[in-house]
Amino acid sequence: QVQLVESGGGLVQAGGSLRLSCAAAGRAFSTYTLGWFRQAPGKDREFVAWISGRGGNIYHSDSVKGRFAISRDNAKNTGYLQMNSLKPEDTAIYYCAAGGIVSSNPKRYDYWGQGTQVTVSS
């Protein structure tokens, strides 16, 4: 079992930046792929980015590529999502997740945090 807790969400203006954190319980954090997903009201959960267990492989969705950056610090059992040049359409609840393989499919992830709200005003 892996317990994940997101933090760092809030209200920002368009063009601003925000860094989300995902704190993981236990000692097995580095064995899991870390993914970030988001869900806006009335929409399906959308893939944002993933990073492999040791951080050697990274992938960002086209919608956030060049603006967002996923990272992790396994010594701190923490993952991050740095969000720059935020747009109103980035408004959503952001979730971190842990899974056994690198994937953009939320069904491949076994553990999920509670989510943190990100609201971008225009």
Describe this entry's structure for a reader.
There is one protein chain. The protein is an all-beta fold. A hairpin with a 6-residue loop joins strand 4 and strand 5. The termini are far apart.
Write out key terms for the chains shown.
mainly beta, 122 residues, globular
Task: Describe the secondary-structure layout.
Layout: E1 4-7, E2 10-13, E3 18-24, E4 33-39, E5 46-51, E6 58-60, E7 68-73, E8 78-83, E9 92-99, E10 109-112, E11 116-121
Parallel strand pairs: 2-11
Antiparallel strand pairs: 1-3, 3-8, 4-5, 4-9, 5-6, 7-8, 9-10, 9-11
Instruction: Give the averaged pLDDT, no decimals.
Output: 96
Query: Rg, please?
Result: 13 Å
Main sheet makeup: 7 strands, mixed
- Give the overall shape, derived from the CA principal axes: globular
SSE pattern? EEEEEEEEEEE
The rounded distance between the terminal residues' Cα atoms is 40 Å
Helix content: under 10%
Q: Can you summarize this structure?
A:
With 122 residues, this protein is mainly beta. It has strands spanning 4-7, 10-13, 18-24, 33-39, 46-51, 58-60, 68-73, 78-83, 92-99, 109-112, 116-121.
